[in-house]
Amino acid sequence: MEFLLEINVEEMPSSHVRTALEDLKDKLGRELQAARLPVAELRTTGTCRRLVVVAELAESQESREEIVTGPPKAVSFAADGTPTPAALGFARSRGIEVGRLEVITTEKGEYLGFKKIEKGKGADEILAKIIPQAIGSLSFPKMMRWGESPLRFSRPIRNILCLLGGKLLSFEIDGLSSKTTTAGHKIRAPQTIAAASFKEYQAALRENLVIVDAEERKKNILAQIDGLLAPLKAQLYPDPELLSKLANDVECPLVFLGSFPEQYLSLPLEILSTAMREGQKLFSVVKGKKQMPHFLGVADAPADAKGFIRQGNERVLKARLEDAKFFWDQDLKVSLKKRMPALKHVLFQEKLGSYDDKTQRLKKIAAYLCGKLEECPTEKDVILAAELSKTDLVTDMVREFPSLQGKVGGLYAGAEGLPEAVCQAIYEHYRPVSLEDESPSSRGGAILSLADKLDSIVGVLGLGIQTTGSSDPFGLRRNAQGVCKIILDRKLNFSFSRLLDKAFLTYGDKLKRPKKEILDYCRDFFLNRLRSILERMGYRYDLVNAVLEAGIDNIYYSYMRLKALDALKASPQFEPFILMTKRVNNILAGQPAYPFNADLIVEKQERELFSTFSIIKENVIPMIAKGDFSQAQKMVFRLQPALNDFFDHILVMAKESKLRRNRLALLQAISKILTQMADYSQVVIEGEKPAAKK
Amino acid sequence: MSLQNLILNLQKYWADQGCYLAPTYDLEVGAGTMTPDTFFRVLDKRPWKVAYVQPSRRPTDGRFGENPNRVQKHHQFQVILKPSPADIQKIYLASLEALGINLLDHDLRFDEDDWESPTIGSWGVGWQVMLDGLEITQFTYFQQAGGLELVEIPVEITYGLERLEMFLEEKDNIYDLNWSDDVSYRDLRFEDERQFSEYNFNQATVKSLQEFFALAEKEAGQLIAKNLLLPAYDMCLKCSHAFNLLDSRGAISVTERVKIIAQIRALVNQVAMKYAGSEGKR
Questions:
Q1: How many interface pairs between A and B have CB atoms less than 8 angstroms apart?
Q2: Which of A454, A634, B126, B271 has its CA 20 to 30 A from that of A311?
Q3: For the residues of A366-397, what is the DSSP string, one character each?
Q4: Are residues A257 and A322 in the same domain?
Q5: For residue A687, is it within any domain?
Q6: Binary contact (B107, A145; C-beta < 8 A)
Q7: Is A266:A329 a contact under the CB 8 Å cutoff?
Q8: Is A259 an interface residue toward B (CB < 8 Å)?
Q9: pLDDT in tens, A647-676
Q10: Which residues does chain B have within 8 Å of residue A316's beta carbon, measured at their own beta carbons?
Q11: Residue A561 pairs with which residues in a beta bridge?
């Protein structure tokens, strides 16, 4: 039978709506399963004012048969067949007549007992318990209370409609009793609506200016956008995030096309679109990459018959663009260079100093990176970009639109006529802001971005400030992810440890904790980000672990080693080789390091392993140094037959300690080369048996 | 149509809702939420309904009278209802209808916007109310005030009077508004903006302000010790305004800013805690 729930709330943030609908579905699914109530279909949908659950459920729980056993048969009956006190006592304790007990055969023997049939509870009884719990347990990044209620939620809950099989399912949450009614559009059709099914509910809401289905609203908005833009042969400046937000924010979507005076078209597209998005949540309209003097807005209304909605938005936007134009003109009166002293007054972090201090560090780190990377852009340009990179923080434009930091600096540098490479590097140096965002397209931008992010990470972690699940005030995780992404995207090949070292040293005496502690912590921090990026790229977690175990001194090389190993995972040599490395690992576990002496070799297989290894080692070392991991991996795989013979014929743990130590020393030398590429023993082999111990 | 009429209409409407119409508070504040009629009354456990006009000073927003939208002093119409009624959104919507706005002709939206004031240790959850893209009201359910978790949740509705009047009069320039039928906003406020911008940005004597800040801070501490919490809070407000002036003079260094905000918050916290603690006895 059909179950319908609508939680009517005051306008929830769009992101809260999304997670609440997912969580409700998960939680109810789990709870219903735990309650053994069969579910044919369960889905959620909604708007910022309603969270809706629709389900097709069985009328009641399945009945359950339980076998209750008592004393063994042998002690339950006297010789004459009458029940003993043991049997009588059991019957009494379970409230059942002794005559109804039967003999039940179990694995352990025959016992006296009975079958108990627990009749399934009705869906109504179960739901009346589960639903209030599920609602009360929803959690949001920021929760609130209202009135005198102790309940915490995203926004105040004002009405609950709950139907089961078309009838009221009665329960109470926070003093609010469930009802069979809801209301239409809050402003345009606030009347009470009753419904007996989801179909009726949906139809009644539609009549009262609410499209309840989220997907339908999104499609509706997109269709309206197309309808308005087709005659202009123009496109929407893409903003998927804004689109999903608006699709949740309105119940009755109306897309309207507005205009602004052409004089503002002299402003760059980035600034125009940001001015439209922030504040009024408008889309900017472009033809190719050129802004048109138009915008699109999404209203919560059936029509704009008198044009008030469009005119009102045009008026507000004009004022904002006027401000932006004013900022642009005013800002350009003072060059970025002249703004540098003002950075002394902008705090980066209380203990790490101002943005002027940060700028000085960025110059040093950027210079270092220029020296380390091949095909570097002109160092002079990168240093100039580093010097000016933060100056836009003291422009009116960035004060007004903080999300434009970096971009504004790049645009102003361009307007000042600075070299293209400098402008580009400043413009891009906050990128990538997420894994989906692109890395800087220029080498200079990449260097500056790396320097900026590393400086923040080493400094903030160096103070002992921890990032936790919910708290990451400096966006360090995002920054570390950005660093890894840039290195991988641009195939940057350099010693990451030394870069960390450099970033640490540029702080001078500002970081008081021991250097090793700080750098180890930073390395682990990066290791975890890199691991999650590689896993998200689709690599097997065990291969990722194996490769990262070999260290991230060179992040790009770590990735190349993973790629090489991944390419070999289907080869016939893969499994035997991995199993062999596990064997080597097991035997070496807990052994101290021993020196190897070729003169102590006695057996043939021992000698063969040594000579094979010597040849392979000679070949592999330059391959590793060059970063040719594909060849290097294939090469070490060739150790497998020799190792196999060795283990088959040689007793490593020989009684004579000289021999034993020398054999262990040979395996240690091999292991040392292997672990430069991966700890292969971490690779999981399917159906793997625990490695045999010798 | 005039700002004066707007104020009269709002006063009438909220008085009918049972609000006490408080006189404007006679100290410089950055927002209506800082006056004792809000600050102290949200801390205690008794129901409270108040509405008042509060001139709000934000020295750094001054533009010498040259910007059509920004001023260093604007006017808020502040409403506090505690505990927040279940139909508060409807009550609010009706207040707009009472101003003659036919909501069916417009797009009215409650857009996520939480509020926070680190200086007085307060925060809340709510929206900016947008009318055809114009922010006309801040609508907030207080969760914490003076660093204390609130038990009975107040709702705060703050109308930006100039914004709302610009919407009603369909004007693009704040100085073109009518204050009354005969007096324009320009008549009353232009010279004020020009002179105060000059004072805030260029003329206020930094050293005197710093000394004044220190005196008020010291006085606040002494008054708190004597359990004279209302005058102590006044001193905190004076500190806050002195800080804002110093800020617009560009006289607050990086590290000082954090420190000063923390200083004021600590005083306000003490006031709030003592006030809430003495509550049960009255």
A1: 109
A2: B126
A3: HHHHHHHSSSPPPHHHHHHHHHHTTGGGGSHH
A4: yes
A5: no
A6: no
A7: no
A8: no
A9: 999 888 889 999 999 999 999 999 999 999
A10: 132-134
A11: none
Last residue of a domain, one of A297, A314, A331: A331
Cross-chain CB nearest to A158 (options B86, B93, B253)? B86
Per-residue pLDDT of B124-181, as tens digits, reads 999 999 999 999 999 999 999 988 999 899 999 999 999 999 999 999 899 999 999 9
Task: Tell whether A44 is covered by a domain.
Answer: yes
Q: In chain B, which residues have their Cβ closer than 8 Å to the Cβ of A318?
A: 172
Domain assignment present for A678: yes
- Are A145 and B105 an interchain contact pair (Cβ–Cβ within 8 Å)? no
Q: Count how many residues are written for chain A.
A: 694
Q: Which residues of B touch A296 (CB under 8 A)?
A: none
- CATH 3.30.930.10: which residues of chain B? 3-200
Class of the domain covering B205-279: mainly alpha
Instruction: Examine the domain organization and report whether A71 and A179 are in the same domain.
Output: no
Token pair 């993973």 in the structure block, residue: A562
Q: Rg for chain B (alpha carbons), in Å?
A: 19
**CB under 8 Å to A82, separation ≥6 — which residues?**
none
Determine the distance in angstroms separating the CA of A623 from the nearest CA of chain B, rounded to an integer: 52
Find where tokens 């507000």 sit.
A316
Mark whether A164 and A270 lie in a shared domain. Answer: no
Upstream peptide bond of B83 is cis (omega within 30 degrees of 0): yes
Q: Which domain holds residue A231?
A: 214-331
What ipTM does the predicted assembly reach?
A: 0.94
Topology (CATH level 3) of domain B3-200: BirA Bifunctional Protein; domain 2 (3.30.930)
Nearest CB neighbour to B254, from listed A147, A282, A347:
A347
Separation in Å, CA of B90 to nearest CA in chain A: 9
Is the Cβ of A297 closer than 8 Å to some Cβ of chain B?
A: yes
**Tokens at B103, concatenated:** 């909501």
Write down which residue in A538, A553, A583 finishes a domain: A538
3-state secondary structure of B55: strand
CATH 1.20.58.180 maps onto chain B at 205-279
Residue A552 forms part of a structural domain? no
